[in-house]
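Treating backbone geometry as a discrete language has practical consequences that deserve illustration. No coordinates are needed to read the tokens, only the vocabulary itself. For completeness, the protein is quoted in full, as a sequence line and a line of structure tokens:
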Amino acid sequence: MASFSPTQIFEDGTTQEKGENARLSAFVGAIAVGDLVKSTLGPKGMDKILQSASTGEIMVTNDGATILKSIALDNAAAKVLVNISKVQDDEVGDGTTSVTVLAAELLREAEKLGYRLASQAALRALEEVAVDRSDSPEAFRKDLLSIARTTLSSKVLAQDKDHFAELACDAVLRLKKSSDLSHIQIIKKAGGKLSDSYLDEGFILDKKIGVNQPKRLENAKILVANTSMDTDKVKIFGARVKVGSTSKLAELEKAEKEKMKAKVEKIKAHGINCFINRQLIYNWPEQLFTDAGIMSIEHADFDGIERLALVTGGEITSTFDHPDQVKLGHCDLIEEVIIGEDTLVKFSGVGEGAACTIVLRGATNQLLDEAERSLHDALAVLSQTVQEPRTTLGGGCAEMVMAKAVEGLATRVEGKKQMAVVSFAEALRQLPTILADNAGLDSGELVSRLRKAIYDGLTTYGLDLTTPGGGIADMRDLGVVESYKLKRAVVSSASEATELLLRVDDIIRAAPRRRERA
């Protein structure tokens, strides 16, 4: 009888895990990621220091998405959790740690279970307790401020959360129901205190006005350009020029100057009094602009001129032969302003009146970077809440209300599915438990008290982590309000990612690519 050797279908070096081993690998990897970030959850959560192996650069942050995308992971299931955290960040802006921790806790509970019924019950319960107060501008603004404070309470800005909540709320309400955060510019300037940060209407460009040009300009007509303005040196690409005398060189330089002068004349023909270029403007064209009474600003970085074009209502131009087809930007006033030690250019009364700039002050660049990430989370959540105005309550309240609804469902479910439903409720209760643990409180006692309060009909109660010893209190009275859209995204994303990982029974890792020997 012929003997058969097993057929090799994978390349050498490829590894395969099957069945229970594959599932265990998925659970362990995902739970490890949840454990990594869960200590950053909540108002008493801790920060992480991340150091780059290549540059040595350090980052101090407690933002879940930032931590997870900054670390190198090899486990496939862990990467799924990183991905849902990134989607949460892109979609809502906050809740990145919550969605990762909930997914990890669901997996921890679930080596044998599935969750679709439970997640539907949880989301129904969440929708039932959501409140919409957008009919009253005053009440809605109060809700927005509460949401901003809740978001910022777990960030580096917690000490000044009232101040930054006002800044974020004012900035988002200027957008008039738009969720386009590109109209809100954030400028970071080291020095001063975080509380020195402020909101300024219009747009601030971190550049300088040209030499000997007016530092103040009213009724500005702005041409925003991305073009080369540095040809007052001889530059003939791909060719070598040999001259026999200095007079011939002077002729070449004169020709270059004339070419640049003709370009400046074309730009002047647009009827502008301000020219802003992404690239450098050399001395000769700058002098020509000065003589013509045109303000010029050079080297405006691409993000800067894109945003400037957007808020002034202009378009970025590269050719100047058809002035009638060019859309100019407009603003009421351009002037130099001093922030800290630096001189910047401020554009007031811009065409897009919703635009504004938040100037962040702080002691170090790392602090400013983390403050920007924190403020961006608040701005993103508020802009989404303006679109979907329903709100729910924080402090573990929403999770406990959902857990109660899920446990109610468990009594009506037969067979092994009941175990899945009960464990989903247990995973939801882990979020308030972790909040209390991170605050150094007795989570067992507090969560038991909160559970009883919710079952007694006190559906607005949650954990009060600010008073010594902790306690439970009405979250509406404390102003611990969260976006309904954020909570919905956390529960649906975490349960979908968990269900995805529960279906895994095989993990195949490709062999590393071999280097070709020279």
The mean pLDDT is 86. The first strand starts at residue 15 and ends at 18. The radius of gyration is 29 Å. The domain at 203-352 is CATH 3.50.7.10 (GroEL).
